[in-house]
Structures are given as structure tokens and as C-alpha cells.
């Protein structure tokens, strides 16, 4: 889409506090192999929901189903539904581009465009949505502030993003995600490539963002799940069975008073 055909966005202010995502009876397959079985999770606005569980239990697959990235894998199929504020993400009422705009994703490894300037990185996703901000500079500043990066980069907005540290690059990717005004941010182990200090900065950012954007985070770090999330779902795939949610609820309850002994074993580090 050229700049001429872009729509100028006159409503530049951030929206209300995110959207509610409701996964109902979600199952998933890669070819013949079923990897998720009947997952039901409500991910509330204003909260961080953490998805925890051992490697291979389907957390990332579930996350990618939420914004229709699962279907990018050949032979990947699914059953069940995902509702964003009651609207079917897989239905005809919501265009795929609108789904991906409203449900953004931050990946394990920071993936800014390294040769592009810091400011251009922030607005890079806007081209895909066909929207042009009424005040680009203000949007860049606002998103960098919301991603807790502004103070570190305000003097070098035209410098290439590749010059930033790993933690700064990840917060830049968060700023880029925010620029398209998502309702939900999906985060797949966003700190696993970061040092402890950068991890804490990203966690603080998550804490501040949750008032504006619903956050769903996959993490292997049990301390992190407890620090950042209000609700938690424990996935497990036992003996070649597909992954299921064994237990979910308020994070404090799942960690301090788990109902299922398998949850207790996992959160206390006895396996996984
Ligand atoms: N593209 C793919 N093609 C085939 N199988 C896949 C693909 N991606 C994932 N799987 C399989 O699906 C299952 C769930 O994988 P997934 O990555 O969702 O688990 P996970 O819980 O996120 O694991 P981890 O914590 O290691 O990232 C695994 O058995 C994995 O091998």
C-alpha cells in the first residue's frame, strides 16, 4: 500500500484497557499428530496471563493459535474457537489483518530491523495496517515511553536499531507492537535471550502495560510467572498425549495452593 492510499489515523490516543480473549475447546494438530486437547482459557483485559509447563506441551502452539499464526505452518490444523471481545477470531467478521493488528506478538529473540532507524522501527508495522499517524513524532515518543525505552534513546532516534543492546531491542519490539494499537500482546518467552537486568526492565514494562493491553506470556521462568502475571495456566503433555491444561487460576493460588499434585511438582521444580 502506498502512502497515498493510507488512512490518516486521527484517533492517536491509546485505547481502553485491552480486550478479553476467550479460547474455547481449542485442539491443534501438526499433520496427524494432535498436540493440544480441548484447551479452555479466558484471558482477561487488565491482566497478565502466564502459560507455563514443560517443553513441548503446546504453549507456543496455543499462543500462535490466538492470533492465527498457527495456520502459517503447512499441515497445521485446529478445532475450537477463539473469541476477542466475543468476536470469532476465525470468523468472517474479522479480517486476518485486523486480527493480527489487534492481537500483536513479541517473540523470544528480539527482531527489530537492524539497519532501520529506531524511530522507523517503531512505526514499521503501521504500513501493514494502512494507517498513517496524524503526528508520527508524537506516536514514536509515546510508544517508546510506554515500552520504557524513551529515556535511553531519545537522543538517537535516527540511529540504526542494530546498535541497541538485546534488552533495548526487545523493548523496541514492544514499542513497535504498541504503535498499531493492539488490544492484546502475546509474548513468547520474551526474556529468554536477555540478561537479568534487561529481564527486569522488560518485566517492569509488562507491569505498566497491563493496564492498557491484555498480555499473554509464555515463560519457563517460574519466578517471572509469579512476578508478572495475575492468572496462570499450567500445560502438560503426558506420555505422548496432546498437551492439556492441568490447572489454571489466580497465579498466587496456582503457585501457593495448587490443587493438582502435578502442578505442585512442576512449580516447585521437581520436573520439567
Ligand atoms: N512446525 C511444527 N511442525 C510439527 N510439529 C511441531 C511444530 N511446532 C511444534 N510442533 C510440535 O508440537 C508440540 C508442541 O510444541 P510447542 O512448541 O507448542 O511446545 P512448547 O510448550 O511451546 O515448547 P517449548 O517450551 O519448548 O517452547 C511439540 O511436540 C512440537 O514438537
UniProtKB/TrEMBL annotation:
<dbReference type="GO" id="GO:0005315">
    <property type="term" value="F:phosphate transmembrane transporter activity"/>
</dbReference>
<protein>
    <submittedName>
        <fullName>Phosphate ABC transporter ATP-binding protein</fullName>
    </submittedName>
</protein>
<keyword id="KW-1278">Translocase</keyword>
<dbReference type="GO" id="GO:0035435">
    <property type="term" value="P:phosphate ion transmembrane transport"/>
</dbReference>
<dbReference type="InterPro" id="IPR003593">
    <property type="entry name" value="AAA+_ATPase"/>
</dbReference>
<dbReference type="InterPro" id="IPR003439">
    <property type="entry name" value="ABC_transporter-like_ATP-bd"/>
</dbReference>
<keyword id="KW-0067">ATP-binding</keyword>
<dbReference type="InterPro" id="IPR005670">
    <property type="entry name" value="PstB-like"/>
</dbReference>
<dbReference type="InterPro" id="IPR017871">
    <property type="entry name" value="ABC_transporter-like_CS"/>
</dbReference>
<dbReference type="Pfam" id="PF00005">
    <property type="entry name" value="ABC_tran"/>
</dbReference>
<keyword id="KW-0547">Nucleotide-binding</keyword>
<feature type="domain" description="ABC transporter">
    <location>
        <begin position="21"/>
        <end position="267"/>
    </location>
</feature>
<dbReference type="GO" id="GO:0016020">
    <property type="term" value="C:membrane"/>
</dbReference>
<dbReference type="InterPro" id="IPR027417">
    <property type="entry name" value="P-loop_NTPase"/>
</dbReference>
<dbReference type="GO" id="GO:0005524">
    <property type="term" value="F:ATP binding"/>
</dbReference>
<keyword id="KW-0813">Transport</keyword>
<dbReference type="GO" id="GO:0016887">
    <property type="term" value="F:ATP hydrolysis activity"/>
</dbReference>
